[in-house]
């Protein structure tokens, strides 16, 4: 059994790595999906968010209005800290539950936690290994603009809002360089998997 953290900046190729690991049989636990799940309509987390940020962040159907909330917290460290204080403990508890469930189903499982904010929120957790997807900022900018349709200023703001590549690389046990072809990236993932299975 192994518990792996997979992180990387926006547009660094993290999803490609997670998909390849899943093809090898890893159990992928997606932090972004957990965030959405714990903030679902009617959840205690959503009630706390509404109490902190006001009813304007809740849509008519009872779901979270992410853009409205984003506008309130983006670039405001104290509001973002207030949001994180509500969301992070719930995400931590739910991810721990999903890890335990995966290992109960298969004691020899490789569980991969796909977590963008590892350095910001979870770096001290007892990971067996930390894998960092890495591509230089200019390449990630290009991917955001060409593939995801963001403007250059939007792409730049998203990258700037995350921790630096240096801080991510400093915690890495394994770095997967995603600057080459898809086949290059997959070959690195395959080698990492073979090493794990040994």
Automatic annotation (TrEMBL):
Main location: cytoplasm
Protein task: Catalyzes the phosphorylation of the 3'-hydroxyl group of dephosphocoenzyme A to form coenzyme A.
One Gene Ontology MF term: dephospho-CoA kinase activity
Protein name: Dephospho-CoA kinase
Record: residues binding ATP: 11-16
Top EC group: transferase
Pathway: Cofactor biosynthesis; coenzyme A biosynthesis; CoA from (R)-pantothenate: step 5/5
Keyword Kinase annotated: yes
Record-stated family: Belongs to the CoaE family.
InterPro entries with a match to the protein in the record: Depp_CoAkinase (IPR001977), P-loop_NTPase (IPR027417)
Assigned EC number: 2.7.1.24
């Amino acid at each position: 059994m192994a518990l792996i953290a997979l992180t990387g900046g926006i547009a660094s190729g993290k999803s490609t790595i997670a998909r390849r690991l899943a093809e090898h049989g890893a159990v992928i636990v997606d932090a972004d999906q957990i965030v959405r799940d714990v903030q679902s309509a009617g959840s205690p987390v959503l009630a706390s968010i509404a109490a902190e940020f006001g009813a304007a962040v809740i849509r008519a159907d009872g779901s979270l209005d992410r853009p409205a909330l984003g506008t309130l917290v983006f670039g405001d460290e104290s509001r973002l800290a207030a949001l994180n204080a509500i969301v992070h403990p719930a995400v931590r508890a739910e991810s721990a539950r999903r890890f335990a469930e995966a290992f109960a189903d298969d004691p020899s499982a490789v569980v991969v936690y796909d977590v963008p904010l590892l350095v910001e929120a979870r770096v001290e957790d007892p990971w067996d290994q930390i894998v960092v997807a890495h591509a230089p900022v200019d390449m990630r900018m290009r991917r955001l603009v060409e593939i995801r349709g963001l403007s250059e200023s939007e792409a730049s703001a998203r990258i700037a809002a995350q921790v630096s590549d240096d801080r991510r690389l400093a915690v890495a046990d394994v770095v997967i360089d995603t600057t080459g072809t898809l086949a290059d990236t997959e070959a690195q993932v395959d080698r990492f998997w073979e090493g794990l299975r040994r």
